[in-house]
Write a structure and sequence with these properties.
- The structure is a homodimer of 370-residue chains.
- With 370 residues, chain A is α/β, with parallel strands linked by helices.
- In chain A, 31% of the residues lie in helices and 29% in strands.
- Chain A has helices spanning 8-11, 49-57, 75-81, 99-113, 131-146, 193-202, 216-226, 228-239, 246-253, 262-267, 288-295, 354-363, and strands at 16-21, 66-71, 90-93, 118-121, 127-128, 150-155, 166-176, 179-188, 205-215, 273-278, 282-283, 303-315, 318-332, 334-338, 342-347.
- In chain A, strands 6-9-7-8-10 form a five-stranded mixed β-barrel.
- In chain A, helix 2 (49-57) links the parallel strand 1 and strand 2.
- In chain A, helix 7 (216-226) crosses helix 8 (228-239) and helix 8 runs antiparallel to helix 9.
- The N and C termini of chain A lie far apart (43 Å).
- The A-B interface holds A 30, 310, 312-313, 321, 324-331, 334, 336, 338-347, 349-350, 353-354, 356-357, 360-361, 366, 369 and B 30, 310, 312-313, 321, 324-331, 334, 336, 338-347, 349-350, 353-354, 356-357, 360-361, 366, 369.
- Strand 13 of chain A pairs parallel with strand 15 of chain B.
Chain lengths: 370, 370
């Protein structure tokens, strides 16, 4: 499905991108914290997930067209991690309101400058193993978007994952170059194991990677129809964006915005929604186990993401070290995460439950450690 | 077997003690290091093993009668840990030569002042759970020593340990108060599992805890007979002890001394050797597993020696923490030792093999970590 000889730079001169950089990733604790969310971490490294997202898009989205939307607590880190991004392209939300307002604001700001702009939205904390194929897919999706669709890029599932939502493919649409295109039949919540297996077996379902491509104007049209109040607020904010009163307007209107994801608020109810199936090696790196799976090339291999590991009779163990030696002896299937103030030793099969520990710490008032 | 109403202070006015403080305890790495041997560590805490040894003896041995023999690298730490010990009672060996020369020098120095002195020798890195019973046993052994025996205190085995040497009890001698006394039939090297079980089943064997009580003059007599060269050298050094040339003499003679343990060099060949069986809860705390065994009161209990442990679904795990939180999830039977520059995660069943890691680091030139 790789499109050959694409002059990416040329084809995408007008492509825009919004990168929502939020969420804390509590399942990657203690590396990720409220104060140091997953997207700022070098997972799998050496660049941070945010930097890797930026790098991945850079060949098809000019810097001036890339908007990173983040919270005030992380603005400085984002600025430092992405020195090539123009100052004005880092948008600081006064508070988290979900992807709907964040991406909607991005769309409003983009449409103000270029009403015909095609834009994509890509989370700052997802991993892609084949960036070139990723870019070809985005460009194919952009072509579909030009035909008046809200396009999502769905990931062809490789196993019965229960941690992702799914997209059910409907009627086939004309392919975009080498890429198949379907209407979206339905968005599905995270399934149980049995359902996930049935989805996988049917061949009709894709993982929902919350990866979208559309004309900014079309998203705003759908938003006007489906979330009229939000739409109005975002236009008000966008109108004030280049004015001295921007901050006042933002502070006045943002707190009143209701939380909504772009999936729930728009995509599940919109009229013309298409999906481009993709296989560029995607994972949301939701927990340490999935990270270990991603990084190990052979069975029982140990994975060292950072630091130094001295392994004696050790298998299938992931080490996210710090500046001290991590020595292991006679152990397997462990996740060992060593940070300045917390050490985690966890069975890989229990990686999903790391958030329980974070919750216990929060309940106990130990917020600095969460 | 507890002797009631002993006026310990009175009975032991003349008792002397030598505490050889050497050895590194590589199986307790990374808490123990060449630069920070086991006897200086708070195992199980809060006092160091050396301090606990001192505390244990203090009620029956006056400070002026206690000699700690250690290497130059640890003299400062010993001095700081035992502020109550007079300056002159910390003896700094120019180099390690085994327990034979160390204890022999102690005996020579004691006999110089008091030819009739009864002295005991007690390693600085052994653990005793019942110090009161320990003291009663030592006083009983001291009475036997007054009758012209080299006395060892043997530990009644509680399981078939293969990591200790054994003592075979021979003919019964008159009891000392409430304590049985036997002639020693034979000293046995560390046995294999089957042999250890046979020793245990026979009821005739005791663990060799390298714990001795004797008249200093009798030890020196046996040393003159069995190790005449060492005997002569030690007398030469002892004669110079209060003279200006002490250091010169020590530097001249000590390097030429051959390594020998008091067990191999004296006890196994001496004439009148007796043993007092004891059950005061003794272990040499040779590795992390034995420490965990010692500290856990019920099955599957987690043990925290230092630091803070947040355990989620965790069993039979020992944590020797540092100043960071140690969180564990879905693990069991682990030893987790967190130090400033090294973190060890080890299966408890492999605790004996920790020295392999130390050896690998030494082989790799990583001496600061060993």
């Amino acid at each position: 499905m790789v499109r050959e000889n694409v002059n990416e730079q040329q084809r995408s001169a007008q492509l825009h991108a919004v990168i929502p950089a939020g969420g804390s990733g509590t399942r990657l604790w203690p590396a990720s914290r409220s104060s140091r969310p997953k997207f700022l971490l070098p997972l799998p490294g050496p660049r941070s997930m945010l930097q890797a997202t930026f790098d991945r898009l850079e060949p098809i989205v000019p810097h001036r067209n890339m908007l990173v939307i983040t919270g005030g607590a992380h603005a400085v880190a984002v600025a430092r991690q992405l020195p090539a991004l123009p100052d004005g392209n880092i948008i600081v939300e006064p508070g988290p309101r979900g992807t709907g307002p964040a991406i909607g604001l991005g769309a409003a700001l983009i449409a103000r400058k270029d009403p015909d702009a095609v834009m994509g939205s890509f989370a700052a904390d997802h991993y892609v193993s084949n960036p070139e194929l990723f870019r070809s897919t985005v460009l194919a999706a952009a072509e579909v978007a030009c035909h008046g669709y809200l396009v999502t890029i769905g990931i062809t599932p490789t196993y019965a994952e229960t941690g992702y939502g799914y997209i059910r493919c409907g009627q086939a649409l004309p392919p975009s170059g080498d890429f198949d295109v379907f209407r979206v039949d339905q968005f599905k919540e995270k399934p149980d194991k049995e359902t996930a297996q049935a989805y996988l077996d049917s061949g009709k379902y894709l993982w929902n990677a919350s990866m979208f491509v559309w004309k900014a104007s079309l998203l705003l049209d759908e938003m006007r129809r489906l979330l009229p109040e939000l739409h109005q607020t975002l236009l008000t904010i966008a109108d004030a964006w280049d004015q001295p009163e921007r901050d006042d307007v933002l502070r006045e209107y943002w707190p009143g915005i209701a939380d909504v994801t772009i999936d729930n608020g728009i995509m599940e109810h919109a009229e013309r929604v298409a999906v481009v199936p993709a296989s560029f090696g995607w994972t949301d790196l939701g927990d340490w186990h999935s990270l270990a799976e991603l990084m190990s090339n052979e069975q029982h291999e140990n994975v060292v993401l950072q630091g130094t590991h001295l392994a004696e009779d050790t298998r299938s163990t992931l080490v996210f070290g710090n500046n001290r030696l991590v020595a292991t002896l006679g152990v397997d299937n462990l996740v060992i995460v060593d940070t300045e103030d917390v050490l985690l030793v966890c069975n890989r099969s229990r990686a999903q439950d790391v958030r329980k520990i974070v919750q216990r710490l929060k309940d106990g008032g130990d917020h600095p450690l969460t």
